[in-house]
Amino acid sequence: STIATGATVNTFGSGTGSTNTIGNTGVGTAVNINVGTGNFALNGAADSTYTVGAATVGGTIAIGGTAQTGTITLGSSSGTQTTNVGTGSGASTVNIATGATNAKTIHIGDGAVANAITIGTTTAGSSLALNDDNWNITGAGAANFVSVGATTAGSGAFTTLSSTGATNLATAGASAVTIATTGTGTVAIGNATGTFALTSSGG
Description:
- This protein is 0% helix and 3% strand.
- By secondary structure, the protein is low in regular secondary structure.
- It has a three-stranded antiparallel sheet, with no helix packed on it.
- The protein starts with 129 loop residues before the first strand and ends in a 59-residue tail after the last strand.
């Protein structure tokens, strides 16, 4: 059936408390809603609830154009709001900017406010990996860094520090290096086959 072709304004269910049904869930039924440059608006009252695809099981839901260049906004309230993505009880996979054709720019909580950001969980069996072109942290906690504190020195302490290859400690500036000055531990430096040297130009 066709209702009102041409430049007309059509109003359905304008009465208060009315329930309007378009289409059905029968096999082969299709509902097509098209809009031109006059734009498309779906709106309701201040406390309306919108449900999209609640009965869908094996179907798919796609939002946005396949070659779209305009902005898609999901949640832009000026009030206190919760935005949920993949929070169901199923074993969901959430993909964000996983396309490999062009480089993506991804921002997470980088506004100039006191954000609280939690990534990952301490639950047994969980895994969190961070990867970069120059450094990485594996899900097992193995970290590979080009440097630690190269720009701004920290005040943290290593409880256990091990390295392979050439290891440099305090090689720039007026540095003070303290090794095992407390406790009853054993300090081992060098080995039976390597070359060991201590050099100082001070007093």
